Amino acid sequence: MNPITKSHESRQRERLATLGASLFARGLTTGTSGNLSVRVSDGWLMTPTNVSLGALDPERLSKLDDNGRHVGGDRPTKESLLHLVLYRQRGDAGGVVHLHSTYAAAVSCMDGLDPAECVPPLTAYFAMRVGRLPLVPYHRPGDPALATAIHDLAARHHALLLANHGPIVSGTTLESAAAAIEELEETAKLFLLLRGIPTRPLSDQEVSQLDRGR
Ligand SMILES: O=C(CO)COP(=O)(O)O
Ligand SMILES: [Zn+2]
């Protein structure tokens, strides 16, 4: 590997570990739940399976090549296929974050949600960073069928809510994926706080006037 590629990859390793620690410290992930990945020049770095995002060792992150084969580090997250589908369906994706964050996970367990838009656009930042949030039918964690289930949706949405599980979000960078999933978590919290209270989500016209992705 040439030195420029190497130093780029080292930085990505640090960014992934730093983000994991920050998410863990703020209670957005607990135990060994959740996983992160970032694009590098010759593949992807992913969090290993069954590790705390709060204690990632940059040197032990899983490396996958451009074909999605595990070529270095510890065994990758059991959701690696899910991450790969998001990258393949969204050409500009540079990072993916999956969490079991409490409020989004709570919403993912609710009955009677609209599967096309399971959290309404309550605030401008939700509409800007997350957009329309579809609900993906329940599959067990790591089920390869989950990757098939999100295939078509992932072409149209960078944020998805997995039923009885949690959110997964891609972004052009790891940090933009994190900003979007944090906004999703906060809006899931508002959605639950506002249950039973007459609420006015943003209108289609108000949403259309927003600068998406900013
Ligand atoms: O969130 C998880 C499964 O959905 C965590 O699994 P991994 O430890 O394999 O990343
Ligand atoms: Zn999970």
TrEMBL record:
Catalytic activity: 3-dehydro-4-O-phospho-D-erythronate + H(+) = dihydroxyacetone phosphate + CO2; 3-dehydro-4-O-phospho-L-erythronate + H(+) = dihydroxyacetone phosphate + CO2
Cofactor(s), names only, from the UniProt record: Zn(2+)
Name of the protein: 3-oxo-tetronate 4-phosphate decarboxylase
Domain Class II aldolase/adducin N-terminal: 14-192
Residue ranges crossing the lipid bilayer per the database entry: none
Phylogenetic classification of the source organism: Bacteria, Bacillati, Actinomycetota, Actinomycetes, Kitasatosporales
Highest taxon of the lineage: Bacteria
InterPro entries assigned: Aldolase_class_II_sugar_metab, Aldolase_II/adducin_N, Aldolase_II/adducin_N_sf, OtnC
Keywords, sorted A to Z: Carbohydrate metabolism, Lyase, Metal-binding, Zinc
Enzyme Commission code: 4.1.1.104
Keyword Nuclease appears in the UniProt entry: no
Protein purpose: Catalyzes the decarboxylation of 3-oxo-tetronate 4-phosphate to dihydroxyacetone phosphate (DHAP) and CO(2).
